[in-house]
Amino acid sequence: MSIKSWKRRGDWLELMPGKVVTGSSDKQMAVEQWLQSELQFPEKMLRQLQANQGIQLAGDRLRLALFASRPIEVEPRWAEIDVLYEDDFVLVVHKPAGMKLHPDGSRVDTAITLDHAVASYYEMNGIQASVRHVHRLDEDTTGPVLYAKNVFALAKLDEAMRNKEIGRHYVAIAGGQVPQTLQLINAPIGKDRHHKQRRRVSPNGQEAITHIQLVEVFPRATLVRLTLDTGRTHQIRVHMGYAGHALIGDELYGGAPDRIGRQALHGELLVFKHPLTGAVIEVADPWPDDFKQLIDRVSNR
């Protein structure tokens, strides 16, 4: 992809495709081919824009109606959020511990989720877009969460997730001294019939692959970095427990209780290609205070 310059003008994205379009005898066909080759424009969305007069060519400028106002669709509930990265296409925010990512659908649930907080952020800043997260984090896992701010970005990022092209890098504090030989866990994960919230390694489960890198070994714990080839529910927690090194604080999977009061797991880096330009975006999320305090405690034992 070679889109280096673009401008937003209200509801419209303005691009300059060059002579491959402006010099063509069939400009409509040239526009369609250029969008598919340069932007990998989703076919369904292209047809929708064409049907709704959402594609305009004026001189050397191509305009696409990508920023049409859309309902937020999640009740805005204010909570302070830490924005790590933002432009007209994407938003990356830090999810704190103890906050669910999205509402569970219960009418009596009054807890403020990250989606609620993002909806409030959109409302306060005049962003007329639906709240759409691209991936998930557990309630007590901290780290960056990626949101798509328009349907084009959502389609491109959802495809990137399916193709395992969005890198999610985690850091965790595991119990015991993890051996240097534990570098890969390839074990399928399924539901635990005996516990509604828990998952377990199961021969009939879905493929799950976790890569492990030792960072520092302490007397009774190990600091590790982890990357995922798959995104199963509780994957890191299940795999580390299965390997005999459950995360500290993760009592659901056999981890030692600790005053951190949650699994010692943090998403420290998110890597993805920008949905329009294809540029690689790296968003780091600093370790939260409770995680740093736990490092201090285990390193002094």
TrEMBL record:
The active site is at D138. Residues 90-240 form the Pseudouridine synthase RsuA/RluA-like domain. GO terms for biological process: enzyme-directed rRNA pseudouridine synthesis. NCBIfam families: rluA_subfam. The keyword Isomerase applies. InterPro entries: PsdUridine_synth_cat_dom_sf (IPR020103), PsdUridine_synth_RluC/D (IPR006225), PsdUridine_synth_RsuA/RluA (IPR006145), RluA_PseudoU_synthase (IPR050188). Gene3D superfamilies: Pseudouridine synthase (3.30.2350.10). Responsible for synthesis of pseudouridine from uracil. It is an enzyme of class 5 (isomerase). It catalyses: a uridine in RNA = a pseudouridine in RNA. Belongs to the pseudouridine synthase RluA family. The keyword Isomerase applies. It comes from Paenibacillus amylolyticus. This is Pseudouridine synthase. The lineage of its organism: Bacteria, Bacillati, Bacillota, Bacilli, Bacillales. One of its GO terms (molecular function) is catalytic activity, acting on RNA. Keywords: Isomerase. Its EC number is 5.4.99.-.
